[in-house]
Amino acid sequence: MHLHDVWFVLIAVLWTGYFFLEGFDFGVGILTKLLARDRTEKRVLINTIGPVWDGNEVWLISAGAATFAAFPEWYATLFSGFYLPLLIILVCLIVRGVAFEYRAKRPEEGWQRNWETAIFWTSLIPAFLWGVAFGNIVHGVKIDSQFEYVGSFGDLLNPYALLGGLVTLTLFTFHGTVFVGLKTVGEIRERARKLALKVGLVTAVIALVFLLWTQADSGDGKSMVAMIVAVVALLAALVAAQIGREGWAFALSGLTIVAAVVMLFLTLFPNVMPSSLNADWSLTVTNASSSPYTLKIMTWCAGITTPFVLLYQGWTYWVFRKRIGTQHIADAAH
After folding, report:
1. What is the reported pLDDT for 333?
2. Structural domain 3-293, CATH architecture
3. Fewer CB within 10 Å, N- or C-terminus of the chain?
């Protein structure tokens, strides 16, 4: 295996980790409108992800940086062609971070309500747009012989990509619902379990259609296995959530995300960004990669730093592992 193949796999791992971790905190942000009944319950939901949401975004930064360094041609075409949706995602992530920090800085109800609304929308919009973006990457976009995107923003809003956006939106919401069931006690936990069934069933239908479409379009035997794992894991997560095994439900919903992302990257390889105009104009792991020397240096750096990042994040989740409920909120006004 060449180093450019190794870095394709590593980038796939980074995106998988990002969607697994950021997926549930996007879901929790969406649930502040769908599940919480009052200000105190909204604070409970926000507190479940308070210690970890910013650490989850490290995976996105790492994925973007790795793409820039390992596959500069891919990075240039992706970020120039998808400029508007990626800019929207970036603005949402910035506002979302500010909303988490500023929401409780003042006691006025209007102030807190506005930031809570911001948390909802800046969780929902990226959850949808990430699916649209990856749907286009896998399905293929208008890339010319110079490896430049020559389509329009409207071209990105095709049926396959929009369906991909619905998949990530519903799947992340389900993942967040299961996480809330795992991290809370009392009435919120029970309502999260009931909501998980409804959201999970909708997710299963949409995801099955999308995965079958992907398999029929560009799949093979390996991607078929990943698709089966994703569907089975999602159905098993539904069952686990209903019988009160939230730990298993969360692990299985996470496995659904992992298997789905793995399937997308399996159907993509050896391309990194297929051209819908001419297959010969597609960006591949070969023509889009950096020099072998650059990839070698990157591999050494990643091997040294990655274990420390994993240990730190693991420690954070262990420290903040206990359940919380409305009884743990000292001042309901905040």
Report:
1. 42
2. Up-down Bundle (1.20)
3. N
